[in-house]
C-alpha cells in the first residue's frame, strides 16, 4: 500500500504561555499543501525501513514511520513485520511538518491495510503520542490549533485561488533554541478573525513569533521573506520555527527564482 504524506504551512504562530509540563501553548493556523513524500508498506518476514530522496538525519530505527508502526503493533500484534520505504521530498526540519505527516500517514495506512477500524479520535490519540503536529495530519484540513498544536478546530479557509512558493535554504533551526528566544504573550488580535480578512491584509496582522530571533541569527532567512515580497507575494512568512519561508501569490503569478546553493524551491499552483 502506498500513501503520499503532504506538508503544511503555519499561517501565523503565536506562543501564548509556557506550561507546567515544559511544553508551550500556542496559536496557529495549519494549512495543508500538496508537497508530498511517498510511503509504501508491504508485508514481510522482518521489519525493514529504507529511505531515498532528501537525507534524514539520525538512525533509521528512530524514524517516525517505524515508531508509528511499533506503536500500533503493541495494541494490534497481528500487524506483524513490514517492509517500508519512504521517499523524502519535503525537507526535514523545515517547519513544514514533513516528519509529522509521515508518522500520521503510517498510522492511517496501517488502519486501512489491516482493517483495524480505528476512529478518527483514536487515530488522533495515537498520533499525539508521536508528536505535537501529528494530529493535524489526521484531520488534514485547515485548522486553528491551540494547546501544543494538538487541539484542532477546523476553519473555513480556501486558498485554492492562490499559488504558493516555498523556499528551504538548507539551514537547520534548532526548535528547542527557538523556543528559548520567545517571551510568551496573549496576542492582541484573534488569529481566527485575521484569517477571515482578505489575504492582502495579513501582512501587518498575521505574525510568527519565531521570525525575529531566527532572522537575527540567520539573516538570509529573513532575506528570503523580503525577496518574496519584492517578487510580488501578497503574504509571506516563515513556517513554524523555520527555516522554510513561503509566499502566497496570485494564481499563476509565481516568479522565477534562482536558488542559492543547497536551496530547495517548490511551486504549488
Radius of gyration: 19 Å
In percent terms, what proportion of residues is strand? Answer: 25-35%
Instruction: Detail the poorly predicted runs.
Output: none
Shape: globular
**Run of helices and strands:** EEEEEHEHHHEEEHHHHEEE
Q: Could you give the count of β-strands?
A: 12
Q: Decide which structural class fits the backbone.
A: alpha+beta
Major sheet: arrangement of strands: 1-4-6-5
Mean pLDDT: 95
Tally of helical runs: 8
Q: How far from one another are the termini?
A: 27 Å
Q: Which range best describes the helical content: under 10%, 10-25%, 25-40%, 40-55%, 55-70% or over 70%?
A: 25-40%
Briefly characterize the structure:
The chain has eight helices and twelve strands.
Which terms summarize this structure?
four-stranded antiparallel beta sheet; 269 residues; four-stranded mixed beta sheet; alpha+beta; 8 helices
Description:
- This protein is α+β, with helices and mostly antiparallel strands and 269 residues long.
- It contains 8 helices and 12 strands.
- The protein has helices at residues 64-75, 98-113, 120-128, 134-139, 175-180, 191-194, 211-217, 219-230, and strands at 2-3, 6-18, 24-36, 38-43, 48-53, 82-88, 143-146, 151-154, 162-168, 235-238, 245-250, 264-268.
- A 4-stranded mixed β-sheet has the order 1-4-6-5, with helices on one face. A 4-stranded antiparallel β-sheet has the order 2-3-7-8.
- The model has no long low-confidence stretch (mean pLDDT 95).
Amino acid at each position: 500500500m502506498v500513501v503520499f504524506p503532504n506538508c503544511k504551512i503555519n499561517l501565523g504562530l503565536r506562543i501564548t504561555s509556557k506550561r507546567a509540563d515544559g511544553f508551550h501553548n500556542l496559536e496557529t493556523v495549519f494549512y495543508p499543501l500538496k508537497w508530498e513524500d511517498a510511503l509504501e508498506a508491504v508485508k514481510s518476514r522482518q521489519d525493514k525501513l529504507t529511505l531515498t530522496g532528501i537525507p534524514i538525519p539520525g538512525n533509521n530505527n528512530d524514524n517516525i514511520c517505524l515508531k508509528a508502526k511499533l506503536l500500533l503493533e503493541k495494541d494490534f500484534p497481528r500487524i506483524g513485520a513490514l517492509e517500508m520505504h519512504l521517499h523524502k521530498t519535503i525537507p526535514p526540519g523545515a517547519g513544514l511538518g514533513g516528519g509529522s505527516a509521515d508518522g500520521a500517514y503510517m498510522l492511517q495506512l496501517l488502519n486501512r491495510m489491516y482493517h483495524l477500524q480505528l476512529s478518527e479520535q483514536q487515530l488522533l490519540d495515537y498520533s499525539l503520542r508521536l508528536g505535537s503536529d501529528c494530529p493535524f495530519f489526521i484531520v488534514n484540513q485547515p485548522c486553528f490549533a491551540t494547546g501544543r498544536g494538538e487541539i484542532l478546530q477546523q476553519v473555513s479557509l480556501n486558498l485554492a485561488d492562490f499559488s504558493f512558493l516555498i523556499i528551504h535554504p538548507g539551514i537547520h533551526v534548532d526548535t528547542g533554541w527557538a523556543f528559548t528566544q520567545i517571551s510568551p504573550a496573549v496576542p492582541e488580535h484573534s488569529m481566527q478573525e485575521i484569517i477571515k480578512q482578505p489575504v492582502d491584509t495579513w501582512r501587518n496582522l498575521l505574525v510568527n513569533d519565531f521570525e525575529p530571533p531566527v532572522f537575527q541569527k540567520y539573516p538570509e532567512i529573513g532575506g528570503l521573506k523580503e525577496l518574496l515580497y519584492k517578487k510580488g507575494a501578497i503574504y509571506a512568512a516563515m513556517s513554524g520555527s523555520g527555516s522554510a519561508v513561503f509566499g502566497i501569490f496570485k494564481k499563476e503569478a509565481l516568479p522565477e527564482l534562482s536558488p542559492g546553493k543547497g536551496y530547495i524551491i517548490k511551486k504549488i499552483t
